[in-house]
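forwarding from the other thread:

> can someone predict this with pyridoxal-5'-phosphate?

sure thing
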Amino acid sequence: MDLCERDARCLWHPYSAWGADLPLFGVRRAEGVRLYLEDGRELIDGMASWWCVIHGYNHPVLNAAIEHQLRDMAHVMFGGLTHEPAVALAERLVAITPDGLDVVFFADSGSVAIEAAMKMAIQYQVARGEPQRRRFLTPRGGYHGDTLHAMSVCDPVTGMHGLFREVLPQQLFVERPEPAFGQACEARNLAALEAAFAEHAGELAGVILEPIVQGAGGMRFYSTDWLRAVRALCDRHDVPLIADEIATGFGRSGRLFACEHAGVTPDILALGKALTGGYMTLAALLTTPKIAGTIAGGEPGLFMHGPTFMANPLACAVARASIDLLLDSPWQMRVDAIEDALRRGLAPCADLPHVAEVRVLGAIGVVELTEPVDMKTVQPRFVEHGVWVRPFGRLVYLMPPFVIDREDLARLCGAVVEVVGELAVRGGRCVPCNASI
Ligand SMILES: *Cc1c(COP(=O)(O)O)cnc(C)c1O
């Protein structure tokens, strides 16, 4: 039995049906921007394994960081103990994030970090004598993870809230942030936001959003004015702002952190994904002494969260190495060059009848189709073109490792233009013209 057959008998994949006959590809090895498949084919990676692998796979510096740490200890509990990798990473994070975010809480995945951020906001409100402030305001089109409270602030439609209606807390949604990145907000873009604050500020534990780039909820880039307006409203109504930079952190949007596009500092910042360069699962929250101190001064005085693998030394060591590697590299130039190449490379898609929009920001390129992609027929087409591109819904998108060279990036864009170019809408889906359905 081959690997994929064995897999199909006993495994679930992300957002998939067990037993569904969907294409699956075994990976034997990965290096740089290439995935080497079990069947001998090699693919140029356009996904950075969902935002994470900014330095490419199997990087000697990151390998060495893990190996070095492994000689001392792979893990030790964080209750009552501390270690150099955790302290050094926390110091780095405080130094590189916007001023004022001086206190770090480590979690083991993005979703867990979001749970912890929401608990942090609620505990802050309780500690300052505002226990009725329990809800969160968030724009539609967001994505914050798959656990239940994180789900409650995901877009209600793509987050499938209907399915979980009885168990999800009811949060307060405002319309998607408008207008697009690079455009100025007009009064009408902010009216609903202002009205929501005016009516509900007294119930709000916090506002949670993805700054500038909405990721898995729709891959949209929005106006810096909108983010600044939220910051001003949060200040006026004394509501903490949680910025989820789990996807955008570490340069992906063209700034080290997407908040910097708008010059906004959140009260709680969530980081994950590229934090370890894609080596291990780790997430971090940064917050202000005001929030951490208020929680410490309230009842019970403790922040009620503490994952078993909190501040895992291997993860912290590789994260620190990844940050140093990034900051010592010409990352800004690389991301700018990727942005240019994506703009030019994906532009031909814009003229196709089944393409709604092509948009690019930083090292993120998006081709939005008019109908959802038929994954069963389309996914193998990308592999046949020698690239790893994993569309979802109506979105075909690229977010390659920052180290990708000009030639590989041109091949990646070329493959997207070819595969998207041969799609046609049939039965409400985008399928290859020559597919038999
Ligand atoms: C991926 C993601 C999460 C969830 O992180 P996991 O590590 O998958 O739990 C949360 N927020 C954003 C913006 C993300 O992109």
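Residues 109-111, 114, 143-145, 210, 215-216, 244, 246-247, 272-273 surround pyridoxal-5'-phosphate (CB under 6 Å). thats all i got for now
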